[in-house]
Design brief:
GO terms for molecular function: O-acyl-L-carnitine transmembrane transporter activity. This protein is an all-alpha fold. It has a single domain, classed as Mitochondrial carrier domain (Mitochondrial carrier fold), CATH 1.50.40.10. It has 9 helices and no strands. Helix 1 runs antiparallel to helix 9 and helix 6 packs antiparallel against helix 7. The protein is globular and about 55 Å long. The relative contact order is 0.14.
């Protein structure tokens, strides 16, 4: 129980750090994915600030903080618990490095489990931003949209796009933790555990994790985002995206997403690894 308590605490704290640091860039990324124009990243940022003010970049952050508390705690706790089961199966001491496929499976499972909470929160965030794009429509907060959607359309509606998100996170989260673990391993002295990786290793592994997640899963993310706001099936959404700009259109907003991911992961995973070490040392 002590291990689970530490994993939950560290997961919540690091996920909230992720949200507060990275939300503005995530806001811009979603806006770019929803817009039909070929507007660039800097143009989008300038337009949002000019039209809506700089505070708009944190509009809807409340729903993401709730997501951090629920989904974030599940995400990291599930990953650590599955890792421990693999360590026991392999007769390895705690905090050992696992075979590649086991790290990937632990990460993939963690992503899927966290989607139970993450999908409704992400759906309402996207719907909130869709309202802001539609001219003349009063902007509603994401929490209002969440409860209003459940009241009018049922709980099934807030899980629209769930299959796409589960596939995205199976691939993305598995790659995220695999890139993080293997990079950390490279910076760990031979025969030592994960807890003895250098601070440089934690820094570089944080960057690698962000690239590992988005390079593979980004096309699925943009299809999911469009699908959640359009009344057509995912295949038609994918065709529409392709017709708008070819294969590169599936990576619209990719620069701001990778920039956000690298920047945020440095804060999140640095917090996660060092807070986790401190908790096990002093708890």
């Amino acid at each position: 129980m002590k291990n689970i308590g530490i994993d939950l605490f560290v997961g919540i704290v690091s996920s909230c750090v992720n949200t507060m640091v990275g939300y503005p860039m995530d806001f811009i990324k979603t806006r770019m994915q929803l817009q039909q124009s070929k507007q660039g990243t800097m143009q989008s940022i300038i337009k949002i600030i000019q039209m809506e003010g700089i505070n708009a970049l944190y509009r809807g952050v409340s729903i993401q903080l709730l997501n951090s508390v629920f989904a974030g705690s599940i995400y990291f706790t599930t990953y650590e618990q599955i890792r421990r089961q693999f360590e026991k199966y392999n007769n390895l001491p705690m905090n050992s490095y696992l075979p590649l496929y086991q790290t990937f499976l632990a990460g993939s499972t963690a992503g899927i489990c966290s989607d139970l909470f993450a999908i409704p929160f992400e759906y309402t965030k996207i719907q909130s931003q869709k309202q802001e794009i539609l001219k003349g429509q009063k902007v509603r907060g994401p929490l209002f949209i969440l409860f209003e959607t459940i009241r009018k359309q049922g709980i099934k509606q807030i899980y629209k796009g769930s299959l796409l998100q589960v596939i995205r996170d199976f691939v993305g989260c598995g790659s995220f933790f695999l890139a993080h673990s293997e990079t950390l391993h490279f910076f760990t002295p031979a025969g030592k555990s994960r807890n003895e990786a250098s601070q440089t290793g934690i820094f570089v592994a944080s960057i690698a994790a962000g690239f590992g997640y988005w390079v593979i899963s980004y096309p699925l993310d943009i299809i999911k985002t469009r699908y959640q706001v359009d009344n057509q099936n995912a295949l038609n959404v994918a065709k529409q995206i392709y017709l708008q700009g070819g294969v590169l259109q599936f990576y619209k907003g990719f620069k701001i997403t990778v920039l956000r991911s690298v920047f945020v992961n440095i804060f999140q995973l640095y917090t996660y690894e060092n807070l986790r070490r401190a908790c096990y040392k002093y708890a």
